[in-house]
Amino acid sequence: MTAFSPLSIGPYVVQPPVVLAPMAGITNAPFRTLCREFSGGKGLFVSEMITTRALVERNEKTMQLIRFDATEQPRSIQLYGVDPVTVGKAVRMIVDEDLADHIDLNFGCPVPKVTRKGGGSALPYKRPLLRAILNEAVTNAGDLPVTMKMRKGIDDDHITYLDAGRIAVEEGVTAIALHGRTAAQHYGGTADWDAIARLKEHVPEIPVLGNGDIWSADDAVRMMRETGCDGVVVGRGCLGRPWLFADLVAGLEGTGGYRTPGLREVADVMVRHATLLGEWIGDESRGVIDFRKHVAWYLKGFSVGSEMRKRLAVTSSLDELRAQLSELDLDQPWPVGADGPRGRTSGNNRVVLPDGWLKDPYDCAGVSEDAELDTSGG
């Protein structure tokens, strides 16, 4: 197997070229810690989405979300914003207070509460607004590299990624990640890897990263070979599978040898994940409660039983979690077919947009002041 070249994000060398995608409510410091442990510290791990208005106003929840573990280098933070001035203030705050080493901008989120305000995957349709935001971010970032993550467009009739890519290059963005789906697709259907290849050809000046349908290390290798992209961004593929980052290192460095943990090892990882969440939140019970969303992802493919799954989904202490896991047949090997889609998979959604949003891609008058959400996390 052949190793792939390192990825350069400003002064930072990412080897192998793999990035943890920001996911709301998922990629907090505990989950990033788990993934980094399995990768041996290799790769780039981005925080969950932070709203620029909430950051500037020092929202209590937001200030916790931007806390990085002392071992995280570089510290990567993803920002969401629709107002250039607010985005610029947030970036300047990050620089002045040394809150992060790398800034990623979210132009890919497809959820209605974001797109209905003209944010996320809706925003690149307004070309002048996109340019203004990127300009403010790069100008205020100084020496910090600024990257962006986006989708193909709003729907098949409103494709934006090639125009957005060219604007990004002109405004000094360091790298672009493309999810090969439109906002209307959400996470349904099959990601369009050909679009990733076209973007790479369209903006050869900067690295292009591919995102979408990477469920295994072999998928990552195949994406890089087929598209020519400079790196991969992995999101839903690591839900309940933080050890995927060990496989990604092996696959992209060409060493081979993937992990197939049995249920006993998976149970140990589940307890560690819940423990880290409790330590981060400062409350064991709240940590276990927050962990509940991960249970089904970790146990996918194993023979557990519906009644036990229900019990595990209402645990509220580490002792209770350990006790219930101990009742399982922990000698089960890694199940065949356990890889594959996890998380939301719905597609063909109507994208909720501000009134008149699609009338003119160059008219930005419809962006209102309340488009900046005052809370973070997606």
Structural features, described:
This protein is α/β, with parallel strands linked by helices and about 375 residues long. It is built from 15 helices and 12 strands. It folds into 2 domains: about 250 residues, Aldolase class I (TIM Barrel, Alpha-Beta Barrel), CATH 3.20.20; about 60 residues. About 40% of the residues lie in helices and about 15% in strands. The model has no long low-confidence stretch (mean pLDDT about 95). Keywords: Flavoprotein, FMN, NADP, Oxidoreductase, RNA-binding, tRNA processing, tRNA-binding. This is tRNA-dihydrouridine synthase.
Order of helices and strands: EEEHEHHEHEHHEEEHEHEHEHHHHHH
Q: CATH homologous superfamily of the largest domain? A: Aldolase class I
Proportion of helical residues: 25-40%
Number of strands: 12
Strand content: 5-15%
Order of adjacent strands in the largest pleated sheet: 3-4-5-6-7-10-11-12
- CA-atom Rg in angstroms: 20 Å
| Quaternary organisation | single chain
Which key features would you list for this structure?
8-stranded parallel β-barrel, 38% helix, TIM Barrel, globular, two-stranded antiparallel sheet, alpha/beta, single chain
List the SSEs and their pairings.
Elements: E1 7-9, E2 12-14, E3 18-20, H1 29-39, E4 44-51, H2 52-56, H3 60-65, E5 76-80, H4 84-96, E6 102-107, H5 112-115, H6 127-141, E7 146-151, E8 153-155, E9 158-159, H7 161-170, E10 175-179, H8 193-202, E11 208-211, H9 217-227, E12 231-234, H10 244-253, H11 263-281, H12 284-291, H13 295-299, H14 306-312, H15 318-326
Parallel strand pairs: 3-4, 3-12, 4-5, 5-6, 6-7, 7-10, 10-11, 11-12
Antiparallel strand pairs: 1-2, 8-9
Helix pairs in contact: 1-10, 1-11, 4-6, 6-7, 9-10, 11-12, 11-15
